[in-house]
Amino acid sequence: MPSLFDPIRLGNLDLPNRILMAPLTRGRSTRDHVPTPIMAEYYAQRASAGLIISEATGISQEGLGWPYAPGIWNSAQVEAWKPIVKAVHDKGGRIALQLWHMGYLVHPDFLNGEPPVSSSVRTAPDHAHTYDGKKPYGEARALREDEIPRLLSDYENAARNAVAAGFDGVQIHAANGYLLDEFLRDGANKRTDRYGGSIENRVRLVTKVAQTVAGVVGPERTGIRFSPNGPIQGVDDSDPHALFGLAAEMMARVGLAYIELREPGPDGTFGKATVPPVAPTIKKTFGGPVILNCDYDGARAEAAVKSGEADAIAFGRPYLANPDLPERLAKGAPLNKDVMATWYSQGPEGYVDYPTLEEAKAA
Ligand SMILES: Cc1cc2nc3c(=O)[nH]c(=O)nc-3n(C[C@H](O)[C@H](O)[C@H](O)COP(=O)(O)O)c2cc1C
């Protein structure tokens, strides 16, 4: 069986190892959601990943409600992404862009006071990060059926821009309680039209988005992320095995290159599972490469790949804090611990200053 350190082909991308960088929002763009030069340094430091999945990146202003997060809907953003992608390529790496619509998790402050959109009228629990600190979420309105073509054209525009910026591929963000997850899971989707109710109806929007994005980028360069197990940001489902089994089958029909899953265990530190693992069901109905994420260390990751449970592993917090993660895992070296206070802070601290093993030894 393969090891974490063996190459793998995802769609038409050849990865030198099976250690992926999971998408990590870091808030180092401008207030207008334009990427900044320090992001080139950060991603280039992590170029030895089999594949970098970028931080979630807004497809439209309607879909972006995170302070200083990047977007990909206008030409200033495309131009600013180009040197970042080039910096990763110059170091021999590969980078895919994660396409994001935050749905009901966009605070009205980002929308000139207008309500955000979701599958149904609903208010997210807890508080949003805004430019004026944490605030309770606003009530979302239900996206009308006649607005869906416009949403799809936003995805199409973003996908075209990702290609123009030079990305090796894209990942559709359908996880973590954001818009596409709000349509998928019945705890959030209360619609009575053909986008709600049955499982077939609830997978319709994500399937159309996948077809639209793959139509621009190529299915062999398009992946998708789900978080099938357990509640997150107020979104959950009553029958995840049936729902995500069908969603994965639809993604296979579109021909996507891979599915990535954030699936914690029952004691997960980034969400908690509430049903038995959904990954095996998804792996069966998808048939292609499945990448697993959440709470992996080197030993668990190697065991998951060796057993065939996963084709590759995506690391989030370990990658944030260890630019040379594959080299450290190969040596069984200790890992730097990520510092939560600088996850979303601006500037270089806790961003580009985590040392490699060699730098730590030299210091
Ligand atoms: C600071 C931070 C930012 C994150 N941003 C994103 C994101 O932009 N998109 C996404 O799908 N998940 C995001 N996540 C979730 C991670 O991709 C990953 O699923 C999570 O950290 C669990 O993996 P880990 O145990 O390897 O850290 C984020 C997590 C953290 C800690």
Automatic annotation (TrEMBL):
Alphabetically ordered keywords of this record: Oxidoreductase
Gene Ontology molecular functions: FMN binding; oxidoreductase activity, acting on the CH-CH group of donors, NAD or NADP as acceptor
InterPro entries assigned to the protein according to its UniProt record, in alphabetical order: Aldolase_TIM (IPR013785), OxRdtase_FMN_N (IPR001155), Oye-like (IPR045247)
Keyword Oxidoreductase on entry: yes
Domain spans labelled NADH:flavin oxidoreductase/NADH oxidase N-terminal: 3-336
Annotated Basic and acidic residues bias: 124-138
Region forming the signal peptide: none
GO cellular component: cytosol
Cofactor(s) essential for the protein: FMN
The organism's place on the tree of life at top rank: Bacteria
Keyword Oxidoreductase recorded: yes
Residue ranges of the region described as Disordered: 117-138
SUPFAM superfamilies the UniProt entry points to: FMN-linked oxidoreductases
Family membership: Belongs to the NADH:flavin oxidoreductase/NADH oxidase family.
Protein name as annotated: Alkene reductase
Organism whose genome encodes this protein: Methylobacterium gnaphalii
Lineage, opening ranks: Bacteria, Pseudomonadati, Pseudomonadota, Alphaproteobacteria, Hyphomicrobiales
Name of encoding gene: xenB
